[in-house]
Amino acid sequence: FPFGHGLSYTEFKYSDLRISVDEESYKVTITVTVENVGDREGDEVVQLYLHDPVASVVRPLKELRGFKRVRLKPGERETVTFTLTPDDLALIDADMRRVVEPGEFEVMVGSSSEDLRLKGSFHVRRRLAAEFEIVEVRRRDEQGLVAVEVIIKNSGVVTDMANVKLLVDGGEAASKTVKLAPGEARKVEFKLEKGKWEEVRVVLDV
Fold it and tell me: pTM value?
C-alpha cells in the first residue's frame, strides 16, 4: 500500500487549495478545504507533500511535510491549514550547508502518497540560509585559567551548524560546533592556561 493509505466508510472531497508566501519570514501558508460527501461520519488524514524540481542536488519526488486528521459528519467541511518554515524547504548543498535555493516548489495534497487530489506551486525568490554573527566575547579569570565566553547568534532564517574557532597567537587552539535555529543565540566557552600566549581571537568558520 502507498504511504498514508487507509480505508474509510465514507468519501471526502478536496477543494480550494490556496498558497501564500510571506516575503519577510518566508513562511508558507497552505490551506485546503475537505468535505465529507459520503453518508457516514468519518476521519480523514490530510497529507501535504513537497517537491523541489530545480534543486542542485537530487531530492525525492515527494517529501511529506505535514499531516492533519479531521473528523467530519456527512455534508460537513473544514479548512485545513499547514504552515511551512524555511527549515521545511532546506537542503544540504555541495558545501554541506543547509540552504533554501531559489526556484519553484511543487505542493501536493491528498489522502496518501499516491492519492494526491490537489496540486499547486510557489516560488522562493532568493537563496535563504543561516547568518551567524559573534555578538559578544568576554574573558573571565579563574584559578590558573582564562575562560573565553562567546555569544553566537543566527540572524538568518534557516537552522544550521556554526563552527567557532579559538585562535591563540595565530594558530587554532580549539573549536566547537553549535546548532542554532533562526533568531537563537547561545554561549560557547573555551578555557586557556594563563601566561602562555599573547593574543587570543575568536572566529567563525562558515
Answer: 0.84
Give me 65's grid cell: 511535510
Fold classified for 12-128: Immunoglobulin-like (2.60.40)
C-alpha cell at 93: 548543498
* 146-167 tens-digit pLDDT: 899 999 999 999 999 999 999 9
The domain ranges of the chain are 12-128, 130-205
Contact 104, 53 (CB under 8 A): yes
Cα–Cα distances in angstroms (integers) from residue 133 to residues 11, 140, 204, in the given order: 53, 21, 8
- CATH architecture of structural domain 130-205: Sandwich (2.60)
From the list 18, 4, 157, 15, the residue with the least C-alpha distance to 81 is 18
Among residues 156, 204, 206, 149, the alpha carbon closest in space to that of 180 is found at 156
